[in-house]
TrEMBL record:
Protein source organism: Massilia aurea
Keywords: Hydrolase, Membrane, Transmembrane, Transmembrane helix
SMART domains on file: acidPPc (SM00014)
Database matches in Gene3D superfamilies: Phosphatidic acid phosphatase type 2/haloperoxidase
A Pfam family reported for this protein in Swiss-Prot or TrEMBL: PAP2
The protein's name in its UniProt record: Undecaprenyl-diphosphatase
Lineage: Bacteria, Pseudomonadati, Pseudomonadota, Betaproteobacteria, Burkholderiales
Catalytic activity, EC: 3.6.1.27
Amino acid sequence: MTKTLPRLQRFAANRFSAEGEYGLHLTIGVALLLAAMAVFAQLAGAVVAGAPITQFDAEIANWLHLHARQGGLLRDVLLFITHIHSTPGILVMAFCAALWLYRSGHRYWTMAVIASVPGGMLLNVALKHTFERARPHFDEPIVTLTTYSFPSGHTMAATVLYGVLACYFSRRARTWPGRVLPFVLAALMIGTVAFSRMYLGAHYLTDILAALTEGCGWLAICISGTATLNRRRRARERRQSGAASPQEM
């Protein structure tokens, strides 16, 4: 017992240390993942059980559809936004971002983009086929889709793409406003994509909320995972240089 307590103390100290291979960054990533899973489970349970929030879903969808049917500039802009954030559009943007990061020498950020965006999109497809929720139905639909509704693929893909880019540019900034601005811009883009899906009648509100939590959880584990790999590489290089130094002297 006396030997176990110091080990637990060292373990806890390492998990909340800003340094080290498995420090605070990984602890925060796992905590965010667990929190996102808990929220997602609540939303999924409400959808499956037909909870009162699903009635609210239908009311919002019908109200937005009445306005969207009138056409206008707003609908045209949102149609453009939703089309460029389709699966091909997101993959092209993710490929360009990954290529730029790779050529800039940021190998682990390249890995983060590849893991979070294509990986997150595959996760979303698996969840859609797990819950098989039908999309909103209207007599005069603006967009017609045959895939499932829960959770929103566009919103999830936008969350991980703009989220990982916001993390990258925030890490590169030297001032607090510079660190906050990428997240503000990312939130605006994600919110616009999410609203376009609801406005055009492709998704319910709970589809959007579930996609946001799914995306944040997946992004947290991808970012913390690649950061851990990077820290392990640096620690290994330090150990190797330390072991080689006596021989070189």
